[in-house]
Specification:
Layout: E1 6-10, E2 15-21, E3 26-33, H1 34-42, E4 50-54, H2 64-83, E5 87-91, H3 92-100, H4 107-118, H5 136-149, H6 158-161
Parallel strand pairs: 1-4, 4-5
Antiparallel strand pairs: 1-2, 2-3
Length: 165
């Protein structure tokens, strides 16, 4: 597998799960308050492609948290675009279907599929590739693994569409 490095992002209204993924395992990962993660993006000096989980509407009512998450997605994309770095939205349904071959798969199913493909968490004495991964970091890994496994092209750059003043 070629050497790559990408961001996988699982946004939420308060904290964002993220991973720097090399195509086989996390290099770094975290679950940061959104303002801190936004600052992490602002100071990024390497144009790493960013794949971010996007919310889709399936006809059911949504609440305040959904709209707040979409707002954070927009803020992350804005910062990345101002820097001129590539990004791509990834939809959860596509991610679940890719990893589990079933659109009704839940987070536990996706996490299990990732551990089956790349290795287990391990222990403190014998850590595996996912040692220390918890909560929304799993969803960020699912995004990154989906992007690399499907060779999803990360080509969106708002700067190419709208001049930044």
């Amino acid at each position: 597998m070629p050497k790559i490095l990408i961001y996988g992002i699982d946004p939420a209204p308060v904290r964002t799960g993220w991973v720097l993924w090399n195509g086989q395992q996390p290099i770094q990962s975290g679950l940061d308050p959104n303002e801190e993660f936004l600052e992490r993006l602002r100071i990024q000096q390497t144009p790493i492609p960013m794949y971010i989980e996007m919310i889709a509407s399936y006809g059911m009512p949504v609440g305040k948290e959904t709209f707040e998450t979409v707002l954070w997605i927009g803020r992350y994309i804005e910062v990345w675009s101002i820097l001129g770095y590539p990004w791509q939205l990834c939809y959860r349904l596509n991610i679940r279907t890719h990893h589990c071959h079933n659109s009704k798969a839940g987070d536990a199913n996706v996490n299990r599929a990732l551990r089956d493909k790349y290795g287990d968490k391990g222990t403190r004495k014998n850590p595996g590739p996912f040692f220390g991964v918890k909560k929304d970091m799993w969803a960020a890994i699912a995004v990154a693994a989906y992007a690399t496994e499907t060779k999803l092209v990360c080509s969106c750059r708002i700067r190419e569409i709208i001049p930044v003043l």
